[in-house]
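Narrative summary of target 7.
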Amino acid sequence: MPASSSSTAAPTFRSRIGCDARSGYYAVPRRYRLHLSLSCPDCLRIAVTHSLLALDDTLPVTLLSAVPDGPEGGHLALRPLYAAGAHQHRGPTPAPVLSDGWTGTIVSTHTPDILRDLARRFGDQGPDLDPRDAEEAIEAIGRLCEQDITAAAQRAGEPGTDPVARATALTTLFDALDHLEARLGDRDRLIGDDITLADVQVWVTLVQLDTVHRHHLDAAAVHRITDHPRLWAYARRLTARPAFGRHLDLDGIARRHHAHCRGEEAAGAAVQIVDWAAHARP
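Modeled conformation, tokenized:
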């Protein structure tokens, strides 16, 4: 059920995929569909996970426009699904969406739940992206990415930010990158020997840091960000894998950013860290 039925706010659907027919939603090939915009970080995480698990024939994907064409960052194509599941909802209709083809309604819009259900309910033939003994570690790296990298980079690059607040945000950002650099000191993966959802989230976070947030940081800050050779080499290795690199829509990311960004371009915009285009989708 949606967490909110407000006519103006986007409702959050939090149903889960169960393990057998006694669940309202249970894992059946081709019953469900993902609706994703690859310029959105959450959608990109889901798309990469979907590819790592080789779910093309099990769970179809509908790709949405890079720049949302509906009100408040929503997609017009998703309006019927939101209206069916949230009492004729007329507010924003954002992606990602996991929909149920049997009922024509939304199962979930909550990225962590969608990722976990893909890994645990549909990932029988693929890698164990969400091992139960690593759940806390994966969640901790997720918080690090969201709070100490993405949110900190946004604060540091916002126009008119107080110098003290900007310096604090940059320190938080650099410390988080230092932590990831240290974790990769003697390993190729962040947790254990195999790829997990943590690697997917860090990769998407680094894509956003280089293609979006870097544009609003000065050259000194970008140089400090670049000074994590193991971390960026790790990002390049993952980008070279088809499950990662083929989902990159660099033009779409740029257009989505410019459509909503009101900040000024800073000196760091000229210093690209990774040649993402070498592996990006056309």
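The first strand starts at residue 32 and ends at 36.
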